[in-house]
Amino acid sequence: MATINSNYLKLPGSYLFSMIGEKVREYEAAHPEKKVIRLGIGDVTQPIAPAVIDALHSAVDEMGKAESFRGYAPDLGYEFLRNTIAEKDFQDRGCDISADEIFVSDGAKCDCGNIQEIFGTDNVIAVQDPVYPVYVDSNVMAGRTGSYDESLGQFRNVIYLPCRKENGYVPQLPDRVPDLIYLCFPNNPTGAVMKKDQLQTWVDYARKNGSVLLFDAAYEAYIHEMDVPHSIYECEGAGECAIEFRSFSKTAGFTGLRLGFTVIPKTLEVEGVRLWDLWARRHGTKYNGAPYIVQRAGEAVYSEAGRAQVSEQIARYMENAGIIRNGLLEAGYEVSGGVNAPYIWLKTPGNMTSWEFFDALLERADVVGTPGSGFGPHGEHYFRLTAFGSRENTIEAVERMKRMS
Ligand SMILES: Cc1ncc(COP(=O)(O)O)c(C=O)c1O
User: For residue 394, what are the CA distances in angstroms to 42, 314, 322?
Assistant: First the structure.
């Protein structure tokens, strides 16, 4: 008789965004005359850059001719893309990463959800709190987290690293040593970043204790302050303790096209085994490669025209971030983020819970955001807004919020 993976039953409630979607659908059905503005889910709205579209078109044409048709992609991704990534994202920044340490995939969500498979099921994970939910949930499914403590809103065998106003939303080193440490910078949901010396502290800690850092840099392209590292490999010794995840989703609007990559340096060993070998085996067995046309599109992001167009899009989102940030500050909200990240993190007024504020914002301003508590207990009394809306909607949403307060 078949049985289920009962770890799935430990996952509390439905996924945050399903709940938001349900509430918004109900509200819209009850108030069809209202124009609801969505600044909740972190999806982009600007179309794919022209240089990338051109690359897609030519790759599609290649697929229609016998002499240029491509079938399965190489396991790690096409060399043209991996070489470009290694050079432009890493070597140009002084990071010692080579093309064969890059594993191309269909996005960072799968990679940061699946990476735990190559580690022992008894490994203890540490996560920032609040945090992108995928890190915890994927470890719950694998049976690594212990049971859920309803009263605390936490899993019993996970080390939570509180990120709050007092520590600038940057976690302190934990008392108990974790085996795997998920770090996400620029951070979703708080929009916070780590300075290079702060990240170096974590690299030193991981090396000293034999921990592995799982560094999610999905929002790297939004960094504009000088002393903020774009890659963990800018830190000394990171090649011996860190894996990095990247995504084209927010960098170049690929949320629908799907492309990302994971970096595993060949120098990174656990128990004398190269993690590169394990991930290569896993990738080869369970994954058949991102589409050729999408890898060509990814390559075009790094072309001169592609870079210029994509930077313009990011600048536009970051102008939205500035509009939200400044507007809410003017309206008396306590706000952070929105400087090196497309997320604005605000304290709910009047000590409302995150969901109370979600309801108030929807009912009084017809604006949808994301309750901070959905990202972990330390997100309670906070709320996330994204800069990915259109300019018009962003301005309108901020005006409505100002009238609300
Ligand atoms: C921190 C973080 N990592 C990864 C992802 C997923 O990226 P992708 O679209 O490449 O799967 C997201 C998407 O919102 C994210 O916020």
Answer: 14, 15, 10
**pTM of the entire structure?**
0.96
Q: What atom in ligand 1 is closest to the CA of residue 110?
A: 11
247 ligand 1 Cβ < 6 A: yes
Q: Which fold has domain 13-42+305-404?
A: Aspartate Aminotransferase, domain 1 (3.90.1150)
Query: pLDDT, tens digit, for every residue of 320-340?
Result: 999 999 999 999 999 999 999
Q: Is the Cβ atom of 255 under 6 angstroms away from ligand 1?
A: yes
Question: What CATH number belongs to 52-302?
Answer: 3.40.640.10
Rounded alpha-carbon distances, angstroms, from residue 222 to 113, 192, 247, 297: 23, 11, 12, 20
- Taking CB atoms within 8 Å and a gap of at least 24, the contacts of 171-175 are 171/128, 173/201, 173/202, 173/205, 174/126
Distance CA 110, CA 283 (A): 11
Does the pLDDT at position 405 exceed 70?
no
Q: Domain-by-domain residue ranges, the chain?
A: 13-42+305-404, 52-302
